[in-house]
């Protein structure tokens, strides 16, 4: 019972009213008076504290005052952090491009047969019941083969001539149909042909190969280079947009770029096409009909 009486006494003390009077010192005239209880004082003090904390929090969060907090980065430091993040992202992309480029070069140098690679991928999806099939020559097939070899025995356009002509026997896909405005001229260091065509015309690969370069250059704009078999390299300059990246394998006739007018050394939408063999420039018009 004593504990209950003590609690009631404490509550009554909190509720007891007190008068706060402000009076004139010289005349003792009452200027202002308040009737308060301890509970009222605690309530007002608590609400004021909460309001003060909220006001200071908002002031620090949404004003430059937060930069004066020890350890908080200022505006310059935050800009540096953002720029560094952008640079790291760009560096990651460049490293990815470099890896694709070197993988393409490695495939070319090591002589990887892309046809075999594609064949291996195709074999992986073949129904297992067909993988063990064995093919043998029939008697009719052997007779037909001998008759065909006999008929072509004295044909001068067979493999002997092909070996002599080298790449002359290769069929090149036309990169773009158009008008040749500036032909090949090795004496003037113009190692390709300029083919004029409508803007946004597609540009195709002349042969199967691996993209070894696909970047922007100051003089020739967007350039793409493809390494083909038989030590052939084709180059396509002044493109508006590149559709392939370094390291990608492309097929003959596949779209690789969009015709444009990029770079400083250009006067209109056209394709500057070069064909190189064993490090020597060839006249593309000798092998391709534009």
UniProtKB/TrEMBL annotation:
InterPro entries, per the entry: Cell_wall_metabolism_enzyme, Dup_hybrid_motif, M23ase_b-sheet_dom
One Pfam family from the record: Peptidase_M23
Domain of life: Bacteria
GO molecular function, one term: metalloendopeptidase activity
Record key words, sorted: Membrane, Signal, Transmembrane, Transmembrane helix
Transmembrane segments annotated in the record for this chain: 41-62
Domain M23ase beta-sheet core: 189-284
Name the record gives this protein: M23 family metallopeptidase
Organism: Ancylomarina salipaludis
């Amino acid at each position: 019972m004593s504990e209950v009486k003590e609690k009631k006494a404490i509550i009554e003390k909190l509720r007891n009213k007190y008068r706060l009077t402000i009076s004139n010192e010289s005349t003792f005239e009452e200027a202002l008076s308040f009737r308060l209880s301890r509970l009222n004082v605690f309530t007002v003090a608590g609400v004021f504290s909460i309001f003060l904390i909220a006001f200071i929090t908002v002031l620090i969060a949404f004003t430059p005052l937060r930069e004066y907090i020890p350890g908080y980065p200022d505006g310059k430091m935050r800009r540096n952090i953002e720029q560094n993040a952008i640079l790291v992202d760009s560096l990651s992309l460049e490293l990815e491009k470099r890896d694709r480029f070197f993988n393409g070069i490695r495939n070319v140098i090591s002589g990887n047969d892309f046809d075999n690679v594609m064949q291996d991928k195709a074999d992986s999806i073949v129904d297992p019941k067909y993988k063990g099939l064995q093919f043998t020559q029939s008697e009719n097939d052997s007779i037909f083969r001998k008759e065909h070899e006999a008929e072509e025995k004295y044909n001068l356009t067979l493999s002997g001539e092909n070996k002599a002509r080298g790449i002359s026997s290769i069929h090149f896909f036309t990169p773009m149909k158009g008008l040749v405005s500036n032909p090949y001229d090795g004496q003037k260091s113009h190692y390709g042909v300029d083919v004029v065509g409508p803007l946004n015309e597609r540009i195709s690969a002349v042969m199967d190969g691996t993209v070894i370069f696909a970047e922007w250059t100051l003089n020739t704009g967007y350039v793409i280079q493809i390494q083909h078999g038989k030590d052939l390299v084709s180059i396509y300059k002044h493109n508006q947009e590149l559709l392939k990246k370094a390291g990608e394998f492309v097929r003959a006739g596949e779209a690789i770029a969009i015709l444009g007018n990029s770079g400083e050394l250009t006067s209109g939408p056209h394709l500057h096409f070069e064909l190189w063999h064993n490090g020597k420039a060839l006249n593309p018009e000798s092998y391709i009909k534009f």
